[in-house]
């Protein structure tokens, strides 16, 4: 069993489908979890809203340096930082506007960069774990997703580079690489797909929390596929 008793974690995107699964596993293992919240409606139905081990930080924009610094500044002994926050858009490159490109880079790459940077500052001199979220199109190219894939490729490259930068420390950096995740939103968007083949948030959360745990004593610089049967 993973053990997080007495350890602090940050989970960006913690109110989403995958983020909730991660938060649940962490608090179940004894962690105190800091969750940033951009908009109040994200908390509708959030099952850990009143949980004593979950610290909510409302009104934060993870693409703004000061807001990310505020989030990580609220921690006192950060051990785990898991960066689930991100977004998706698809379309042929000819119809992809610069605004969409910039938005995807901001919501996926910039938020990850800032969160990694502040996590490293908070963990300096101590052991720690960082887990990012890339995407399957980075490893298995898919059409109609050029901008999205590029933004997630930045996450993957950041992960590999940072893992090497920190190789002589005790901070391990890894990323998971999911395919389409079995969430209500994805089912609604693709009602005719084989949903049984999609990996479930709880299943992916199991891999994330292992990589983010003290039990992960050797794995760093990995891009870990979590495709399920898809």
Number of strands: 7
* CATH arch. level architecture: 3-Layer(aba) Sandwich
- Helix amount, in percent? 25-40%
Strand arrangement within the widest β-sheet reads 3-2-1-4-5-6-7
Q: Beta fraction of the residues? A: 15-25%
User: What is the CATH level 1 assignment?
Assistant: Alpha Beta
Radius of gyration, taken over Cα atoms and rounded to an integer in Å: 17 Å
Mean pLDDT value: 97
**N/C terminus separation:** 27 Å
> What ranges have pLDDT less than 50 throughout 5 or more consecutive residues?
none
SS summary, helix count: 6
What structural category arises from helix and sheet content?
alpha/beta
Sheet with the most strands?
Answer: 7 strands, parallel
CATH topology: Rossmann fold
How would you describe this protein?
This protein has one domain (8-226): NAD(P)-binding Rossmann-like Domain (Rossmann fold). β5 (128-133), α4 and β6 form a beta-alpha-beta unit. It has 230 residues and is an alpha/beta fold. The longest helix is centred in the middle third of the chain and has 26 residues, at 98-123. The chain contains six helices and seven strands. The two termini are 27 Å apart.
Pick out its properties:
Rossmann fold, alpha/beta, globular, 17% strand, 230 residues, seven-stranded parallel beta sheet
């Amino acid at each position: 069993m993973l053990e997080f008793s007495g350890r602090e974690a940050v989970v960006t995107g913690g109110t989403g489908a995958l983020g909730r699964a991660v938060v649940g596993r962490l608090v179940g293992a004894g962690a105190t979890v800091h969750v940033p919240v951009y908009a109040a409606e994200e908390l509708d139905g959030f099952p850990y809203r009143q949980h004593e081990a979950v610290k909510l930080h409302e009104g934060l924009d993870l693409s703004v340096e000061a807001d990310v610094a505020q989030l990580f500044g609220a921690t006192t002994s950060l051990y785990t930082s898991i960066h689930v926050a991100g977004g998706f858009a698809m379309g042929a490159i000819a119809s992809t506007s610069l605004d969409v490109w910039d938005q995807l880079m901001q919501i996926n790459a910039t938020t990850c960069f800032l969160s990694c940077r502040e996590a490293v500052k908070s963990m300096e001199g101590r052991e720690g774990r960082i887990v990012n979220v890339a995407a399957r199109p980075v490893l298995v190219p898919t059409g109609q997703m050029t901008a999205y894939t590029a933004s997630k490729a930045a996450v993957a490259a950041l992960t590999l580079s940072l893992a090497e930068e920190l190789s002589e420390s005790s901070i391990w950096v890894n990323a998971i690489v999911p395919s389409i995740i079995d969430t209500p939103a994805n089912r609604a968007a693709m009602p005719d797909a084989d949903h049984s083949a999609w990996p479930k948030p709880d299943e992916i959360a199991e891999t994330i929390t292992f990589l983010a745990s003290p039990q992960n004593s050797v794995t760093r610089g990995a891009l870990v596929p979590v495709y399920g049967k898809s």
